[in-house]
Amino acid sequence: MDVISLARQLGKAIQQDESYIKMMHCAQVNDEDQELQDLIGQFNLKRVDLNNEINKSDKDQSRIDALNEEVRELYGKLMTNTSMTAYNDAKNEMDDLMDFVIQILRGSINGDDPDTIQHNTGCSGSCASCSGCH
Prior knowledge:
Blueprint lengths: L2 H14 L1 H15 L1 H21 L6 H20 L1 H28 L25
């Protein structure tokens, strides 16, 4: 079997993994959460307003400060929304899985035994034991 076929099989296996299923479920819940969608819409509009104000030739610093505060407040509400929090947790779990998969692939390319590569969850600061940055 060639490498591309194996990569396709890996892709299918990833889509069957509990981390992927959980992340996709949480994404769907986010899409259906009207309160969250309203917050996202408000946040995006305020961000556009802020960018427009910043790009004006006759900037109003007090308006910029007020809009910036509104953007921060909306962002805080977004990030503490239950649906968004669940999605971020699921996405972090999925990212961690993918980081490990990439770590195995990089280690394999560097000649390491794929069966003995351990999950490195952080940078130790020493590149000697590293199979590459993600």
